[in-house]
Amino acid sequence: MHPAPSPMRRLSEAPRLYVQEGFASDEEVRHVLASYGDRDALTRRGLPWQANETGVSSELPVEADPVLAAIAARIEAVLGFSCTLEEPTFRFRRYARGDAHPPHLDEYTIGGARLVATAIVYLTDAAVGGETFFPRAEPHPRAVAAQKGRLALWFNHRADGSVDRAALHQSNTLREGEKATITYFVYAPVEAARAGVVADEAPAREEAASRRFVCVNDGVPEATIRVLREACAARGVVYEEVQAADFDFTAAGPLPPGTLLFRPAVSTAAVRVEQALCGPGVVTFHREADGVFREIGPDCAVLERRGISVPRWIWGNTTNRGILRRYVDDLGGLPIVMKFAGGSGGVGVLRIDSLAGLFSTMDHARASGRMPVLSAYIPDATHHRCIVVGDRVVGFWRNRTDEDDFRTHATDDPADYQAPPAPEILASAVAATAALDVELGGVDVLEHASGRHYVLEVNFPCYFARARLVGGHDVGGAMIDWLVRKAERGGGR
Ligand SMILES: O=C(O)CCC(=O)C(=O)O
Ligand SMILES: [Fe+2]
């Protein structure tokens, strides 16, 4: 017997897209995989197959196999019409890691019959990637993950017979796990598109009504994603992820107004995707509506102009030794710090202890076309990292130094996450974030033994997960709450 599958759910208004869990039983899936699941099995059955970047595929005649015939009959029963081809087939497909299927419409005609509906039955679980993705779905893009036994079913035509452009779809790149499918292409006279599928409409409406948080990912640490997902789940916010490497710029426009958008990834690809997704009313951590297009800085210059305490600094623009000597005097003497833009985790921050070191390093910087910032070295300082969301510091920790290095790093010792920095440091961190026109910042502050403090930089985006995972500070919750409140105020503009 076939166990009762879960209700059919409608996922989008356009295309008419439905999903049902447990549509194929474990036994059916086992049978299909054993009979046709790879090249060897297909070859044994005398079935021709092809292999390319969309995986290994083969046409499986439906009538020859009672299991396939039963699955096809159930799909036709859901649709209320049958495939009118003389010899209907399932298309088997197995994607290898790295395989994808580019965006397309299933728009075909055979004889007089149109490809009215497509039904995919997933035979395996894809752990990461491999979703069937509908970038033009309305009211918002939808992704169906490959999960064993699941059915995805959609109409390629509208009820009036016209081709539904919202049915554009692709397979996202399979990154981890397995993706094997059988797809039933249901050809019929175009009038069949009038058919209605009986589905539980409620979940799609509820989801459409709830707030969406779209996260642009490109190799972001798993911990960051976990913290964001957890915060969304706790607030009933729908978490969605866009992989920059799978993004198709022909298919996507800005997100609908009121959508929350955040890009924890720092790659250029992720920046461009965020720009494409941002539009009127989309809510981000930028104070300005077009903030995603701006790059300002360097931090020391902007912060200094706003009256925020920064270490004394000057541009490393020259190899002229006379000028460089004056720079060193101006910075209070050796050692000094040389900082190149773009690094993270302390990479690109150099301590210069001698004029010989300065001259030789500057010759190299100039020849490489780089212009570092030179700044005063603050000895015996405590390095604080403050995570600012909006007008508050919501997470903090103290960095430590290792022997034989001057740079600092975070630790996994909860003690470093307990005592908040002094109130004036918290105030500087908030002011520094605001000065850079963002509402999220990982602010580095040095506190000298004298009590004076200096803001080094504001990282945006920044790594914040450890404040949650080691320190227990609910940084993710503060981030989502901030964006939701901003959306409610109509703050995305
Ligand atoms: O494998 C998928 O998710 C989509 C496949 C597809 O669109 C097709 O075979 O036409
Ligand atoms: Fe397709």
Write a brief caption for the model:
The chain is α+β, with helices and mostly antiparallel strands.
Tell me about this structure:
With 493 residues, this protein is α+β, with helices and mostly antiparallel strands. It contains twelve helices and 28 strands. It has helices at 26-36, 39-44, 66-79, 202-209, 222-235, 268-277, 299-305, 321-330, 355-367, 423-435, 465-469, 475-488; strands at 9-12, 17-20, 49-52, 55-61, 89-95, 101-104, 109-110, 113-122, 126-129, 132-134, 142-144, 151-155, 169-171, 174-177, 179-188, 212-217, 238-243, 260-262, 313-315, 336-339, 349-352, 373-376, 381-389, 392-398, 400-401, 408-409, 440-448, 453-459. Strands 1, 2, 3, 4, 5, 7, 8, 12 and 15 form a nine-stranded antiparallel β-sheet that branches. A four-stranded antiparallel β-sheet has the order 6-13-10-11, with no helix packed on it. A four-stranded antiparallel β-sheet has the order 19-22-20-21. Strand 23 (381-389) and strand 24 (392-398) form a beta hairpin. The radius of gyration is 28 Å and the shape is elongated. The model is unreliable at 203-208 (pLDDT under 50). The structure holds 2-oxoglutaric acid and fe (ii) ion. The site of 2-oxoglutaric acid has 9 residues, from strand 13 and strand 15. GO terms for molecular function: ATP binding; iron ion binding; L-ascorbic acid binding; procollagen-proline 4-dioxygenase activity. Residues 84-188 form the Fe2OG dioxygenase domain. Residues 300-488 form the ATP-grasp domain.
